[in-house]
Design a protein that fits this description.
By secondary structure, this protein is α+β, with helices and mostly antiparallel strands. Among the domains are: 92 residues, Roll (Pdz3 Domain), CATH 2.30.42; 161 residues, no CATH class. Helix content is 51%, strand content 16%. It contains twelve helices and ten strands. Strands 4, 5, 6, 7, 8 and 9 form a six-stranded antiparallel beta sheet that branches. A two-stranded antiparallel ribbon has the order 1-2. Helix 2 packs across helix 9, helix 3 crosses helix 6 and helix 3 packs antiparallel against helix 10. The longest helix is centred in the middle third of the chain and has 30 residues.
Length: 427
């Protein structure tokens, strides 16, 4: 006699009991008040540029998760959690089958979609709506949605900047502000440069938005003869660029360069066309940069910089340090905020594209790993046969090795950014 052995249903993890409405409201008030206090303290300690940058990064990460969540819901998958932050739960509310809320460490967020891999145990009632039981196209869409969202953000930023701000004319560059460094008299201060000065030429060569940084940093040991337009007349000053902190050997004047004064407005169609072309150029450049970074030559260079401080200082001084960690990216973004809205938007475009490309690397736990598994299972499934299931457990040693490599790589980049600083490209 033959029969079917029915496995007992997987045990459900009981959902935490929902607090009373009054307690939920009080938690929300406390969360808002605590956030306001934290923002105020950060602004007082580090300045509003840091608040703007950190807030922007949190929003970007949450939009990444929203991409996964929205496409999962649209595809009929079961998403049980959508949280801002990690760690202890501060506040949450349940709407239907999904719990929304905030956690204590605001360094990202996550969406919980049931059945992301075949190793996950599910209640039989949830099987039809699990990630792994959807069609290949839906799985690829949901897994790629975070990176797609990053590209959409970059595209909207590019189009918006061109449409509302315009395309900067490269013939004029303005000093937006002078750097203030306690205990240090900057070359700009000593030379008498002022906020609002328009740079006309340096050492007899006309200054544009494309050559101003190289003009300043290639001054060598001699003072630069700088002509600025101030109050309708040309003023000539002599300034000797020099490194302004112990972590960098890059010569600087100590100025923040604002957006060029004149702009051309290409209109809506022109903004869409130019914005799309810009995002494409940055994306292909980012892919090339990651290819170089993760090549044997790039990894060897990284190891040498980490173990040899002189080599690291030399590489940073020549501006050939390659990619930066989130620490370096945050510093660049803060410098960009000080330089003007257009510079900040450019950094946000580059950051979104970098995150989008990095997340599509074909290895778990990155989004690209889920895409690779979905495509592999589709390729191994034969017509008329049950869907092939990849054994994720067999892949775990490779996943752990990759995670260890990624952790060492990120830690190395963070160390270099902290120990040797990140050159300010905005002046």
């Amino acid at each position: 006699m033959t029969g079917t052995i029915v496995a007992p249903p997987a045990e459900r993890t009981p959902a935490p009991p929902e607090p009373p409405r009054g307690e939920t409201a009080m938690r929300l008030v406390a969360l808002v008040a605590g956030t306001a206090v934290a923002v105020g303290l950060l602004a007082a300690a580090a300045g509003w540029p840091w608040v703007i940058v950190i807030g922007s990064i949190i929003v970007i990460i949450m939009l990444h998760e929203l991409g996964h969540f929205a496409t999962a819901k649209w595809s009929g998958m079961k998403a049980t959690e959508f949280f801002v932050g990690f760690g202890p739960r501060l506040w949450s509310i349940r709407k239907g089958e999904t719990e929304y809320g905030f956690k204590a460490i605001p360094l990202g967020g996550y969406v919980k979609i049931l059945g992301m891999t075949s190793a996950e145990e599910l209640d039989p009632s949830d099987e039809p709506r699990s990630f792994i039981n959807q069609s290949t196209s839906k799985r690829v869409l949901v897994a790629s949605a975070g990176s797609i969202m990053h590209l959409l953000i970059a595209l909207l930023l590019a189009i918006g900047a061109l449409w509302f701000i315009g395309n900067p004319h490269a013939n004029r560059v303005q000093i937006g502000a002078l750097s203030i460094i306690p205990g240090v008299v900057t070359p700009a201060e000593r030379a008498g440069l002022k906020s609002g000065d328009l740079l006309v030429s340096i050492d007899g060569v006309s200054t544009t938005g494309q050559n101003v940084i190289s003009q300043i940093q290639s001054g060598g040991s001699h003072p630069l003869r700088i002509v600025v337009l101030r109050g309708g007349r040309d003023v000539t000053v002599l300034a000797q660029p020099k490194p302004l902190d112990a972590h960098s050997s890059v010569p600087k004047l100590g100025v923040f360069l604002s957006d060029p004064v004149t702009y051309t407005h290409p209109g809506l169609i022109g903004s869409v066309t130019a914005g799309t072309a810009l995002v494409w150029r940055v994306t292909t450049g980012t892919v090339h940069a990651f290819t170089q970074t993760f090549s044997p030559k790039g990894l060897t260079s990284l190891a040498t910089q980490v173990t040899n401080a002189k080599d690291a200082a030399r590489v940073r001084a020549t501006g050939q340090g390659g990619s930066v960690s989130m620490v370096g990216a945050t510093e660049l973004a803060v410098d960009a905020v000080k330089a003007g809205p257009l510079a900040f938007i450019e950094i946000l475009i580059a950051l979104n594209i970098s995150l989008g490309v990095l997340n599509m690397l074909p290895m778990l736990p990155l989004d690209g790993g889920h895409v690779a598994i979905a495509l592999y299972e589709r390729a191994r499934t034969r017509k008329g046969k049950p869907r092939y299931r990849a054994d994720v457990n067999k892949l775990m040693p490779v996943v752990y090795a990759f995670m260890a490599f990624l952790l060492i790589f990120v830690a190395s980049k963070m160390y270099l950014d902290i120990a040797h600083g990140v050159s300010n490209p905005f002046g």
